[in-house]
Write a structure and sequence with these properties.
Elements (H helix, E strand, L loop, with lengths): L2 E18 L2 E3 L9 E11 L2 E7 L5 E7 L3 E14 L15 E2 L5 H7 L13 H7 L7 E2 H15 L1 E2 L10 H7 L1 E2 L1 H14 L3 E10 L12 E11 L3 E6 L4 E2 L4 E7 L8 E2 L2 E2 L5 E13 L1 H4 L7
Parallel strand pairs: 9-10
Antiparallel strand pairs: 1-6, 1-17, 1-18, 2-5, 2-16, 3-6, 4-5, 7-8, 11-12, 11-15, 12-13, 13-14
Helix pairs in contact: 2-5, 3-5, 4-5
Amino acid sequence: MPMLNIHHRTTYSFRENVSLSPHRLMLRPREGRELRLLSHEISISPEAELSWSHDVFGNAIASATFQTPSDSVVVDSSVTVDLTAAAWPVFDIAAPAINYPFFYPDNDWTDLGALTVQQHDDVERRLATWARAFVAGRPTDTLSLLKDISLGIASSISYQSREEEGTQAPLITLDRGWGSCRDFAVLFVEAVRSLGFGARIVSGYLFNPDSSLTGSTGHGSTHGWAEVFVPGAGWITFDPTNRSVGGANLIPVAVSRDIAQAVPVSGSFVGATDAFLSMDVAVEVRGIDPVSTARPESKD
């Protein structure tokens, strides 16, 4: 996997100057064993003061505070990362968890907490019934079960990009038979939670060099997927939009209990009720030549 450059620009336009509240930015990728952050720069117009913190999930949060009114806001993020995630990962699942159902160790269960609880109403247990249909037997192979649910979503739900914010409730996605990558991820997470798994939403970027992957019209885009905690293996990545397992082609920025907690750029303004005109988001993810980024050797 080559080193990648990610350019993410968000532009808000208004009819007139408005007063801008602090904006919350989730744009810095999460470093880990499979991803190394080489550089990250954020530029904002109008000029803003940035302060950094971490949320409860360990995501990096920047708060942009504006001093002057403006008729536009431009947030420009440029990132270079080294992504080494394997295309065909092997997961060392602990022996007690190889087959489903299994019990999480007490400490894991306590720490997973709300990540095991469904966030959307399922009063009639329709989603739980749908998910249980993938359980081939008791016991059944844990990893195969999770893969089957991911593949089942991709097979029964048509991908459709949506520009509006937010996600569909999982039952709405099932009933409509279509959804965005965010909707796929929410459906998958809620389905596996109904079976007792700890799962979380991941928001970030999709690297799509040959335009063969779903969820991107070019070389890359923002993207949503999921992770499930399995003892021994830890957090296993599932992208139901692309029927994939593992982090290849995926650059995580934020993990969360609910997709609403992982909005890349959010904020508000004070002005006329009709002041807002538009929001435009442009994302490009490209591979870069490692040789071109290497520092020249020093000469003694």
